[in-house]
């Protein structure tokens, strides 16, 4: 009986608060601005049904506070239109909350990323690059690519494309810490939840119409996240930045396409006797080995090989590993290419105006590795692409949307491109008063990034397949490609500018 | 028409109308008159801007037009339904509104809620696709529409977002609000004037609702050959973006007519822009080309 009376009282309260809005336009707004709509109703609900409604609400919930998730947060914090948004970052990584700093003489971590000039300018734009430069980082302006057949090689120099650097190699923990410091120094409403996402419920037409009173209707229109420590929160937009095994993507029901490469990558930090200023990559029959400078006398090895070989290389002794690496970079598997110094013969008179300066540099051997400086890690490689990047109130960025082969160092750069594009799209949405979780707005981000990402993935996958076959005519074709890219300036400039992130599609300006 | 051509003809018209002689010299308008004369028997008999009607009609509502909209009211918020073109065009219209009103009221264009403290009215709000973004930009919005169904749908949808639920929706006409002596900082009537029976009276009502030195924004479709080809033939018959019969070419206003009508209602048009559709990207953009869809921003003369 009392419950019946209680519900009738509630019902009359609803009508009271609604009829308050039926007054003249002159009075209504001021009344409503003083009292947030529905809060009076809220208290009634609490008292009558012992039910609390103060679950926090955020504009954006970023699930995954890794490099790409933090880049998105930083980017939103740096733009005037979006810096008033409230953000929740959900990641159980203790590095986000323990406030530790990276010491100068910490040994270099084997997990590094090659950051392209496009990403460097993104970082500079959001004010995070200054933090990266305070730690170990290595710009490089030269690169040499060759293969085991010895038929050809290509040397790239940043000056070929009128640039200063081809890229910068930075440890992932440095990138992450820099973004975190940048974010913390900004006046921005962010809350870090050091836990994992356990489940998520997204609004559907039926769930919204089924919700009863207006307060719960507006909550039913938001995404509700349940975290593993029992906290709940509501968000207008959920960003899945939680890596290749994205839980957000799974919960949103977004399917993926892709395949596993039957390869694993072994990564390790090694030391030389002198500093290394060039990036080296040699394609071997089982996969490429890359030697990237990371500063001081250290370099990073990324060696792709079959999974069985990968576990062998992981457990063999350090001396054996050093020998294997030097062998792979030197005479292992095949001869050195002949140095092609341009300037002799009939051909040179045809091509003289188009020859790049680096075509005159001869083939060089990479510096010898002296010792191993970190533990060796191995992880399997695969290609993955989500079929959609966005659905109602959910969007994917970074590895959650796509993973690629590391052979060109593009993976995380694609992720940073996603973060930049999404933050611009959100800013455009806020400027015209859109609901930021609307699919039409998020599809603009998808249209922008999907073409660029799929093209890059196709190019990389093409390379991976082209180099995994040891077949005479194909070897010669590859050699021709090497020599062609080495000699023809427009082609080399095009390759450098595409790999630097300056253009979205190769060969089209 | 390019912007310079438009400005020149605008000045010409303003001068001419002040001298009270409506002999239009430009050959393009003569051609237009000739074409209209040829089609006269086929057109609805309705007052044009150059034959001003006495503003005696109480309402500018056209019942036949209302019935058209009542029929598809349920699908207002279906972004893939019959109102899809409006949803796709919406951000572009809002960009124009945001930039002109921020400049007019001296608000910070980089603020997320620049219209705090301002009162706007969305005349012919339909399902509220313009009212909700304006409310999110901080304005106190009143939305009115003559179709009861539209108002109901607008209210239901607005309740889904706490910011939008502050919008005041009423099923009424601009004329009724004039009688209630309501005044707003900005009066916005997008894609409405081509559906009213008496555009002259409608503009006078809009003007009466605007505070002195307040803003009035009207968007509509130009009565040009190109608009016939794109907005009617292409949009209604070929691409099926709009139901057949949504627009009557004879109800369209040319920019010059709109400017003169507003001028008679004490509103001087300061800025105009057009919307262009790029079929490759499927996006609308603001342009100087006012030959099809155009939007006008005017300021009410201070009394």
Set down the secondary structure blueprint:
The complex is a heterodimer of chains A (509) and B (303).
Chain A: H1 2-20, H2 28-34, H3 39-49, E1 57-63, H4 67-77, E2 87-90, E3 112-115, H5 117-126, H6 129-132, E4 137-140, E5 142-147, E6 153-157, E7 167-171, H7 172-184, E8 190-193, E9 197-201, H8 205-210, H9 214-220, E10 223-227, E11 232-240, H10 247-251, E12 256-271, E13 278-284, E14 287-295, E15 298-305, H11 307-315, H12 318-329, H13 346-351, E16 371-372, E17 377-386, E18 390-391, E19 394-396, E20 402-403, H14 411-431, H15 439-466, H16 472-487, H17 489-499
Helix pairs in contact in A: 1-3, 4-7, 4-14, 14-15, 16-17
Chain B: H1 3-18, H2 27-39, H3 63-71, H4 84-105, E1 119-123, H5 131-136, E2 140-145, H6 148-158, E3 168-171, H7 174-179, E4 184-190, H8 199-209, E5 210-221, H9 225-238, H10 255-264, E6 267-278, E7 283-287, E8 293-300
Parallel strand pairs in B: 1-2, 1-4, 2-3, 4-5
Antiparallel strand pairs in B: 5-8, 6-7, 6-8
Explain what you see:
- The complex is a heterodimer of chains A (509) and B (303).
- Chain A has 509 residues and is an alpha+beta fold.
- Chain A is built from 17 helices and 20 strands.
- In chain A, the strands form three sheets. In chain A, strands 5, 6, 12, 13, 14, 15, 16, 17 and 20 form a nine-stranded mixed sheet that branches. In chain A, strands 1, 2, 8, 9, 10, 11, 18 and 19 form an eight-stranded mixed sheet that branches. A three-stranded antiparallel sheet of chain A has the order 3-7-4.
- The longest helix of chain A has 28 residues, at 439-466.
- The model of chain A is unreliable at 4-52 (pLDDT under 50).
- An eight-stranded mixed sheet of chain B has the order 3-2-1-4-5-8-6-7.
- The longest helix of chain B is centred in the N-terminal third of the chain and has 22 residues, at 84-105.
- Residues 19-28 and 33-58 of chain B have low confidence and may be disordered.
- Chain B is built from ten helices and eight strands.
- Chains A and B meet through helix 2, helix 9, helix 14 and helix 15 of A and helix 4 and helix 5 of B.
């Amino acid at each position: 009986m009392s419950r019946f009376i209680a519900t009738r009282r509630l019902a009359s309260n609803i009508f009271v608060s609604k009829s308050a809005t039926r007054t003249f336009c002159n009075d209504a707004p001021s009344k409503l601005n003083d009292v947030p709509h529905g809060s009076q109703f809220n208290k009634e609900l609490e008292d009558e049904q012992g039910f609390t409604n103060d679950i926090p609400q955020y504009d954006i919930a970023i699930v995954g506070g890794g490099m790409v998730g933090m880049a998105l947060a930083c980017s939103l914090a740096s733009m005037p239109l979006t810096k008033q948004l409230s953000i929740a970052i959900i990641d159980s990584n203790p590095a986000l909350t323990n406030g530790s700093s990276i010491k100068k003489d910490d040994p270099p971590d084997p997990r590094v990323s090659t950051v392209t000039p496009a990403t460097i300018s993104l970082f500079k734009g959001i004010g995070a690059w200054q933090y990266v430069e305070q730690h170990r980082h290595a710009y490089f302006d030269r690169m040499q690519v060759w293969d085991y057949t010895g038929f050809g090689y290509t040397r790239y120099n940043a000056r070929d494309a009128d640039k200063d650097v081809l890229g910068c190699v930075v440890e992932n923990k440095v990138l992450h810490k820099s973004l975190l410091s940048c974010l913390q120094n900004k006046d921005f409403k962010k809350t870090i939840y050091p836990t994992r996402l356990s489940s998520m419920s997204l609004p559907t037409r039926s769930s919204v119409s089924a919700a009863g009173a207006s307060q719960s209707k507006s909550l039913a229109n938001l995404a509700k996240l349940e975290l593993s420590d029992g906290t709940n929160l509501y968000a207008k937009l959920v960003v899945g930045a939680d890596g290749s095994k994205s839980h957000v993507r799974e919960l949103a029901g977004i399917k993926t396409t892709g395949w596993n490469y039957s390869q694993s990558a072994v990564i390790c930090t090694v030391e030389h006797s002198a500093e290394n200023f060039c990036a080296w990559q040699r394609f071997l029959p089982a996969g490429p080995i890359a030697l990237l400078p990371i500063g001081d006398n250290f370099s990073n090895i990324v060696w792709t090989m079959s999974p069985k070989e990968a576990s062998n290389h992981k457990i063999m002794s350090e001396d054996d590993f050093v020998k294997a690496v030097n062998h792979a970079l030197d005479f292992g598997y095949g001869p050195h290419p002949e140095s092609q110094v341009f300037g002799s013969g009939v051909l040179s008179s045809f091509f003289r105006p188009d020859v790049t300066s680096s075509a005159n540099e001869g083939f060089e051997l990479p510096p010898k590795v002296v010792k191993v400086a970190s533990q060796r890690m191995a992880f399997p490689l695969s290609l993955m692409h989500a079929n959609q990047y966005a659905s109602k109130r959910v969007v994917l960025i970074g590895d959650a949307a796509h993973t690629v082969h590391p052979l060109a160092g593009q993976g995380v750069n694609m992720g940073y491109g996603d973060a930049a594009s999404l933050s611009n799209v959100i800013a455009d949405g806020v400027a015209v008063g859109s609901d930021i979780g609307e699919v039409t707005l998020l599809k603009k981000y998808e249209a922008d990034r999907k073409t660029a990402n799929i093209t890059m993935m196709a190019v990389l996958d093409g390379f991976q397949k082209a180099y995994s076959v040891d077949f005479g005519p194909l070897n010669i074709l590859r050699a021709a490609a090497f020599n062609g890219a080495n000699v023809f300036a427009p082609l080399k400039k095009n390759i450098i500018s595409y790999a630097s992130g300056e253009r979205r599609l190769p060969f089209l300006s | 028409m390019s912007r310079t051509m438009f400005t020149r003809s605008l000045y010409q018209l303003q001068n001419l109308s002040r001298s009270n002689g409506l002999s239009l010299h430009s050959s393009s308008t003569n051609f237009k008159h000739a074409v209209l004369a040829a089609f006269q028997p086929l057109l609805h008999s309705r007052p044009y801007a150059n034959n001003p009607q006495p503003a005696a009609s109480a309402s500018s509502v056209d019942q036949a037009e209302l019935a058209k909209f009542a029929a598809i009211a349920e699908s207002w918020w279906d972004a893939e339904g019959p109102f899809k073109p409006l949803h796709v065009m919406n951000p572009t219209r809002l960009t124009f509104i945001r930039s002109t009103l921020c400049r007019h009221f001296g608000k910070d264009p980089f603020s997320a809620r620049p219209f705090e403290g301002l009162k706007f009215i969305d005349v012919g709000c339909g399902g509220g696709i313009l009212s909700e973004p304006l409310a999110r930009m901080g304005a106190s919005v009143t939305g009115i529409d003559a179709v009861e169904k539209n108002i109901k749908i607008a209210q239901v949808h607005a309740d889904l977002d706490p910011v939008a639920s502050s919008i005041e929706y009423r099923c009424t006409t601009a004329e009724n609000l004039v009688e209630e002596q309501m005044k707003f900082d900005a009066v916005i009537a997008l894609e409405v004037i081509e559906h009213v029976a008496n555009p002259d009276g409608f503009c006078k009502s809009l003007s009466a609702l605007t505070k002195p030195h307040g803003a009035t924004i009207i968007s509509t479709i130009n009565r040009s050959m190109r608009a016939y080809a794109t907005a009617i033939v292409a949009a209604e018959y070929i691409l099926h973006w709009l139901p057949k019969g949504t627009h009557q070419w004879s109800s369209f206003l040319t920019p010059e007519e709109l400017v003169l009508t507003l001028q008679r209602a004490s509103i001087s048009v300061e800025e105009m822009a057009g919307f262009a559709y790029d079929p490759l990207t499927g996006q609308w953009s603001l342009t100087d080309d006012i030959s099809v869809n155009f939007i006008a921003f005017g300021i009410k003369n201070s009394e």
